[in-house]
Amino acid sequence: MSVVIFWDRGLAMENTFIYQENQKGIYVAVDIGTTSIGVSCFDVETKSQLASFSFSNPQKIYGADVITRIKNCLDTPSAEKNMSDMILIKLNESLKCYLGNNYNRISCLCYSGNTTMQHILRCLSVEGLSKAPFTPVSLDYFECEVSHEDNKAVINEAGNVRELFLPGFSAFVGADILAGVEYLGMGKSNRYDLLIDLGTNGELVLLNNQKGYATSTACGPVFDYGISGAVYGSECIKAIAMCIKRGLIDETGLIKEPFFEKGIDISDDITISQVQLRRFQMAKAAIYAGVISLIKKADIDYDDIENVYISGGLGFYLNIRDAFTVKMLPEQLKDKITVSGNTSLSGAERFLLSDDKDTILANYESIRSRTESFELADYERFEGIYIDSMNF
């Protein structure tokens, strides 16, 4: 396998890959999420979209969250390679299905995703992600060329494929978030922009043109699977919001009689139990407290925030009114919110199709260099804020 490093902490390297604008083929953008994977395909010449689809991350048999998958990688030497191949094989199958005879025209793929997913896909050691100080092997932009002979799981059986991996912030705030921040054009004025990515992890970035703060909190598995019968996290939130409005749940999260023991049947398929509700409270409180902690860390007021962007798998389907009903977000942000969809995939598409990738890479580095990543567990005020955020 031949490897070319294109960008390292803002320094263009000697063997820069120059895109041939007359190169024919298909470009593919991929967002590797912990729970699901989003894909979009484009014709190189016309830049028109040929296909867009998503599928469940097959790695879930190794665990629903990144912590469990990291543990599996460390416990079983073959696990990481197996997980990497799982994604590539499933991606191969899906692209063949959606592109048909055009499949072998694929010439370039651009991967966005959280830091753990990118490490696993590239078969980089995840040991540094398993313990403090949580040091990734790399957070920098990386590209390589892979042939089918190198790896039978690789895309495009007909020839070589260029693979691009976008840079990230930290072990817990990855390329998916940095790509989204750049795509949205955040941090270009003195006022702050806030990105809240509600996927399997809640990742948060608060940024202006001088300074930024980034952090994350585990919450998604509870939203995705926390209520019996709920298919999507948004269904879970909607069901609880409805119960609060009808007075079936008090502000402390206690289910009222006569539903306390058996739970609340929302429909034939969806039931809310007291145990499930408590888990949900912890998850939504983590998001609420994460936002408050960012604001306090930056030493600003709500009025200093101009835009709030909600992104990610859960964010795409989230009813904002329900989010405020369950107290997932501070009321002061209500009039500033835009639901932005999958900004990780949109960011990968932007980079993939750009005629000026150097400028986007410079934007990434500018954003990273002025953004402080921190762990909420290390923030001395977080615990108190978290407890105060538990009620509805």
Descriptive report:
The protein is α/β, with parallel strands linked by helices. It folds into two domains: 2-12 and 25-165, 2-Layer Sandwich (Nucleotidyltransferase, domain 5); 186-344 and 373-388, Nucleotidyltransferase, domain 5. The protein is built from twelve helices and 17 strands. The radius of gyration is 21 Å and the shape is globular. Mean pLDDT is 88; it is low at 1-23.
Structural features:
Nucleotidyltransferase, domain 5; 12 helices; disordered N terminus; six-stranded mixed β-sheet; seven-stranded mixed β-sheet; 392 residues; alpha/beta; 2 domains
The H-and-E topology, N to C, reads as EEEEEEHHEHEEHEEEHHEEHEHHEHHEH
CATH domain topology of the largest domain: Nucleotidyltransferase, domain 5
Give a count of the beta strands, DSSP E runs of length 2 or more.
17
CATH class of the largest domain: Alpha Beta
Q: How many discrete structural domains?
A: 2
Strand content: 15-25%
CATH architectural arrangement of the largest domain: 2-Layer Sandwich
Based on Cα principal axes, name the global outline.
Answer: globular
SSE layout and pairings?
Elements: E1 2-4, E2 7-8, E3 11-12, E4 26-32, E5 36-43, E6 49-56, H1 66-75, H2 79-99, E7 106-113, H3 115-121, E8 142-146, E9 161-165, H4 175-184, E10 192-198, E11 201-207, E12 212-218, H5 220-225, H6 233-245, E13 264-265, E14 271-272, H7 274-298, E15 305-311, H8 312-317, H9 320-325, E16 337-341, H10 343-353, H11 357-369, E17 371-373, H12 382-388
Parallel strand pairs: 4-7, 7-9, 10-15, 12-17, 15-16
Antiparallel strand pairs: 1-8, 2-3, 4-5, 5-6, 8-9, 10-11, 11-12, 13-14
Helix pairs in contact: 4-10, 4-11, 7-12
